[in-house]
Design goal:
The chain is α/β, with parallel strands linked by helices. It has a single domain, classed as TIM Barrel (Alpha-Beta Barrel). Helix 2 links the parallel strand 1 and strand 2. It is globular and about 60 Å long. About 5% of the residues have low confidence.
């Protein structure tokens, strides 16, 4: 199955648009585990076990593992998710962005070492920084588009000048003509990225976009430009994004009679609000309760 097929099946099976982000912070672990980085796998596995029937995806953030030299625990966690929740796709949140042989190594890391179903990428070095990942058929690739952090506006909200000043690649780039054709004078940078992802860059049919829940009007704009692409939407929960506004801006129901999945899928991520719902021995059951409440709120907003 392609990532998109997996996502639609998981969305339908769980009746859910919720993604649980796995961002383990040992300083926030419960009880005797607090501060013990050797418990990262056990903590995350307990969250997975408690919530896997409520979610459409899991999203481990690689930095939270690498900072504690816990990449081996991430490998174990990825294998655990495949074992206990084989139908739930896993998005590795790494935000890689480089070219050539380096990008090929990042792709191998994500899809061979960690067996991820999808990966987050930074598109700001251009199409040749995305191309090496297409060597893994069916894998999802989420390009940073309009991120949830306030500083995202520093670049993403800047307007293109149009013509020769639109940031299109130079004559040496094989993607130059197609990329330039997507440029619309006056577009903001995130709009240009959305046009590219929905158009000439989507050679695998598996591109998606990262759009923050803290900007619902801009989610709606991205959805208008990329009506069928999956949107990975962080920022609901601890970052303050509104579930109802997020769903109304980004979700599009399927037009097929009787279909139970979306035609414009959204993957709404919540990390800290679920992971750290309790600091006690009941942390896993508390995480399940918050995940279910969030799932229901997202569904109600449809």
């Amino acid at each position: 199955m392609t990532f998109t097929d997996q996502l639609q099946a998981a969305e339908r099976r769980a009746g859910s648009m919720l993604c649980v982000g796995l961002d383990p912070e040992p300083a926030r672990f419960p009880g005797a585990w607090r501060g013990d980085a050797s418990r990262i796998f056990e903590f995350c596995a307990a969250i997975v076990d408690a919530t896997h029937d409520l979610v459409s995806a899991f999203k481990p953030q690689i930095a939270y593992f690498a900072a504690h030299r816990a990449e081996d625990q991430l490998e174990r966690l990825m294998a655990h998710i495949k074992r206990v929740a084989p139908g739930v796709p896993v998005i590795l949140d790494a935000k890689r962005g480089d070219i050539g042989a380096t990008a090929a190594m990042y792709a191998a890391e994500a899809f061979e070492r960690y067996q991820a179903d999808a990966l987050t990428l930074s598109p700001f070095m251009g199409f040749d920084s995305i191309e090496p990942y297409f060597k893994y058929p069916g894998k999802g690739l989420f390009l940073l588009c309009r991120t949830s952090n306030p500083g995202g506006s520093d670049l993403q909200a800047q307007r293109l000048a149009g013509g020769g000043g639109d940031g299109s690649p130079g004559p040496g780039s094989p993607a130059a003509a197609a990329t330039a054709s997507c440029s619309q004078p006056g577009d903001r940078l995130f709009e240009h990225i959305a046009r590219l992802a929905a158009g000439p860059w989507n050679r695998s049919g598996q591109l998606g976009l990262v759009v923050g829940a803290t900007f619902p009007a801009e989610i709606a704009r991205v959805r208008a430009l990329a009506p069928s692409l999956p949107l990975l939407i962080p920022g609901v929960g601890a970052q303050g994004g509104d579930a109802q506004a997020t769903v109304q801006a980004g979700w599009r129901g399927s037009q097929a009679p009787g279909a139970a999945h979306s035609s414009g899928p959204i993957i709404v991520n919540s990390s800290r609000a679920v992971l750290y719902a309790s600091a006690g021995a009941d942390f896993a059951s508390a995480a399940r309760a918050v995940a279910d409440t969030t799932r229901r709120a997202l569904n109600a907003a449809r």
